[in-house]
Structure formats: C-alpha cells, structure tokens
Design a protein that fits this description.
Number of helices: 5
Structural class: alpha+beta
Number of strands: 5
Strand order of the largest sheet: 1-2-3-5-4
Largest sheet: 5 strands, antiparallel
Helix content: 40-55%
Strand content: 15-25%
Order of helices and strands: HHEHHEEHEE
Length: about 170
C-alpha cells in the first residue's frame, strides 16, 4: 500500500528531481556562506542604496558607524566622510545617472594600519586617467573634477576598478 506509493517510479523521479535542485544550490550557498563568514572575520560593513540623492543620509549614518565598528578615532570622521560622500555623489549622478533602479554599493573594512571604503555604481565607468585639475586657472570655473580632487586630496590612496565604476578610498591609520 503506502510503501508501494512511496517507491513508485513517479515518486522516485520526483525525489531525484528535488535532490538535483538542492544539489544545484550547493555552490551558490557555499559562496554566500563564505561571503558571510569572511565579512564576519574581516569585519566588513556593507551598504547598498538606490541612486537617489536623498539616500546620502543613509551613507552619513553608515560612515558614523565606522567609529564603533572599526575603533576609528573621531578626528578621522571628517577626513573619511567628505571623500566617501563625494564618491557616492559621483556614483549616483554620473555613474548611475540618478536612475533609482540602479544601486550604489559601499563596503568598508580595516586591515592592519589602513582603512578602506569602496563605492561601486552600475554605470559604464569613466576615463579616470584624464581628470582636469580644478585648481588650475583654466579649470576654476568648471564643475567637473572637483569631487575627484577632494577624494584624492583627503584619502591617502585612490584606487579605480571596473573602468572607474568602482573606487576604493584608502586611509592610513
């Protein structure tokens, strides 16, 4: 009766199908678990926002959490917050072109005597090798390049990836 139904070819095929579905999830789950564990071990903070200028408040709150999470000195707040906010503004306005369905992702972590904040948008990137110096007389009136200048000046190192769609600010502690 019940045992025959349990071992019918249809039930066996269905169990095999379910098992294969579960097994197909294993690599994805392994990546997710590894990411979660590395975030816990590496003590990383992440924030993802839609590309709306009003979300800068969320970024400011995210930056404020750095002190407690990473044990950063309060005097570093200004040095870190302005270039990070500039990077997010660039990502929202220039990278994602104010498209609310596109995300800006931030990640912050500390390694030894350095603190890192990366900002990534879903845009095409830009030519970061050809940024006009906004302090030169010919460029004083131009708006372009000022945010990047602030980012370069206040961070100790500025790294570009993904054709400029991702920027990592590095601060020496």
């Amino acid at each position: 009766g019940a045992e025959e139904k349990e071992n019918s070819p249809k039930r066996i095929k269905k169990r095999r199908h379910c098992k294969n579905q579960v097994l197909s999830l294993v690599p994805i789950l392994r990546i997710c678990i590894t990411t979660i564990i590395s975030s816990l071990v590496m003590n990383k903070l992440n924030l993802s926002i839609s590309s709306e200028v009003g979300n800068i408040v969320k970024v400011e709150n995210f930056i404020e959490s750095f002190g407690d999470t990473f044990g950063l000195k309060p005097e570093l707040f200004g040095k870190i917050s302005l270039p990070v906010i500039e990077a997010v503004n660039n990502a929202i306005l220039s990278g994602n072109k104010l498209s609310p369905d596109k995300k800006v992702c931030l990640e912050a972590w500390k390694e030894k005597d350095k603190f890192y904040v990366s900002v990534q948008d879903e845009g095409e990137g830009f030519d970061y090798t050809n940024i006009p110096d906004p302090t030169l007389p010919d460029n004083i009136e131009k708006v372009a390049g000022r945010g990047l200048y602030v980012m370069k000046t206040l961070s100790d190192e500025l790294l570009f990836e993904n054709n400029g769609a991702k920027v990592t600010l590095v601060f020496n502690l």
